Amino acid sequence: MKKHIVMTGTVTYAIKGRDLLRHAGFRAGIERVTSGKTPGCGYAIVLEGDLSSAEKILRDAGVKILGIREN
Prior knowledge:
By secondary structure, the chain is an alpha+beta fold. Helix content is about 30%, strand content about 35%.
């Protein structure tokens, strides 16, 4: 299964998003992204599962998403 990397505006959004997604049944974690090209604080939610559902959950909860990549 593909992993999706969701860049967030702050570490607080990353933690909130991870917890929301885990509660919804996703496998989700947080990683520090240090590529230098990363917008925001450099933290991202890494998840497996349906990206469109996960994105809706995050946006509905007010989690600021700066970008999404697939790994």
